[in-house]
Amino acid sequence: AAGGSAAAVKTLDAEKSKRAIKSVLNKLSRGTFDKLVEQLMAECALTDVSVIEALVSMVFDKVAYEAQYVGVYADLCAKLHEALGSGFKKTLISAAQDEFENSTLARETLGAVADRGDRDAQAKRARSKIVGVMRLVGELFKRSVVGASLVHAISSELLGEPRSVPCDDYIEALCALMTACGGELEASPKTNKAVMDMYFARLNVLAESMEVDTRTRFMCRDAIELRSNAWVVRANKPAAKKASEEIDFTSSPAVSDEILFPEGPANGANARSGSLQGPYEKPAHAVVLPTAATRSALEDDMRRNAKLRAEAKADAAIDAALGAGAGGASSSSYDAEQVEQKINSFIDEYATVGDISEALLCIADLIARTPDKEETKNAIAKALVDYVVNVSSAKIADAIGKLLAACFTSGGFETSTLEMAIGDVVSMLDDVAIDVPMAPKLLAKVVAKVVAANAVALDFITAAGSGIEDVMYRREFCGVALVELKEVKYTGLKPGALDLHGFAAGEPGVDDTVSEWLGSLSLSELA
């Protein structure tokens, strides 16, 4: 009888503690935190395992629908961990594992729910619960309650196998976890940067996958943007102007000067002083604007190409994370047609985004997945140079020049690879310049970038240009390259470094002398 009475008292104390916990959690906020935590410690039987389990369960329920208070609940868990020791932490981790299993079970049983409204409500509850718990885990990591190894284990579990598409609940949960503690996790000495790269490369693939809900895809992009912004949350966008406010259209032209004046706007005395002087030439390629009939097909094609690029980055990131490195063997190889498609795809993306590190990642994956790696490098370099001529844009020429330089400094490309790719096109400038008048200047900008990076020698300018027969094109190519190098203060640009009198000699009495030509470019010191 005495034993039964003691058990009844213990049960009564446990039930009373659970009611007290529920009351405290309902009132918990930043302002009431200290007082209510003290009350919780004093009134609740926190040595009872069932009470601790009930507390953790209630906290998990709270974070599912009160995202703004997740930090407060994490502070509470940190206090309890400090007071109760490792036993509380074990209960917390065990409960989080149970949430994974419950989430999977809930999704599997949704098909049996006949009513659509009930089914949607249950799906929403399951998603809110797992996402809330992941936010809490992230906050707990920031407070050193759980370790980096647990966060990595959870992240891997949420992502699943490479090339698989996790459920939307898990993707959103991973985004919530990374948003909560991604910065601290990446800064942790226990985190390999390659592993973080792998997580976000996978998120990039999911952000382009049509198998993923639109809302979830945007969450992936938000998480990617947060990391690219050094984990600093983007400031709120400025409010829209009122109708009564005057808008100064002259301060923000609808069309950029680069589009209106590809050779540079004519502006008084400086009209012809730039390195890209010359009359405007109509682009040789036709401009095709999307129509209602073609828009859907164009969007599908863009998504398909974006996903291919993202998958290539993810595969390379996974190889790096597994220790294979950029040159490690990949799980599959590309044939010639796939190589050509992926080269064109990553060049299009690079021209749009301008991210050299991502472009190098794609290049590394392409090289790793082909049997003849040198041939692949040659194809990549040639495609980049051809792209400059085809697009005929000074901005693109600058970007491609930087990428080719990076291919030498960081991508394992040899000088001979770059010289062959650029030299082949430069040697045909007499013919190319007829269709693309800007080609000599554009290729000169590319050459200047690789020379400045010491990827090729300075005399490559005259060596490559010696195949140009027309002295006008020859001078145009060489002159722009030298002006570009002077602007970046290239140390090798000295008198006598190049035989310009032999290279740029024109017809006496018809063309300017070499000294006069150099003087017109403000390069008299090289005469």
Q: Let me know the largest β-sheet.
A: none
Which shape, going by the Cα principal axes? elongated
Number of strands: 0
**pLDDT < 50 stretches:** 1-9, 252-256, 267-275, 324-331
Q: What is the terminal separation in angstroms?
A: 113 Å
- Bin the strand percentage: under 5%
Keywords: Initiation factor, Protein biosynthesis
InterPro entries: ARM-type_fold, Initiation_fac_eIF4g_MI, MIF4G-like_typ-3
Protein name: MI domain-containing protein
Organism: Ostreococcus mediterraneus
Describe the structure.
This is MI domain-containing protein. One of its GO terms (molecular function) is translation initiation factor activity. It comes from Ostreococcus mediterraneus. Residues 338-466 form the MI domain. This protein has helices at 2-27, 33-43, 49-65, 70-84, 86-109, 116-142, 148-159, 168-187, 193-208, 214-228, 257-260, 292-321, 336-353, 356-368, 373-391, 394-409, 415-426, 429-435, 439-452, 460-465, 471-487, 500-503, 514-520. With 527 residues, it is mainly α. The protein has three domains: 10-228, Serine Threonine Protein Phosphatase 5, Tetratricopeptide repeat (Alpha Horseshoe); 299-371; 382-527, Alpha Horseshoe (Serine Threonine Protein Phosphatase 5, Tetratricopeptide repeat). The longest helix has 30 residues, at 292-321. The termini are far apart.
Descriptive tags:
mRNA binding; mainly alpha; Initiation_fac_eIF4g_MI; 66% helix; translation initiation factor activity; 3 domains; ARM-type_fold; protein biosynthesis; Serine Threonine Protein Phosphatase 5, Tetratricopeptide repeat; disordered N terminus; single chain; 527 residues
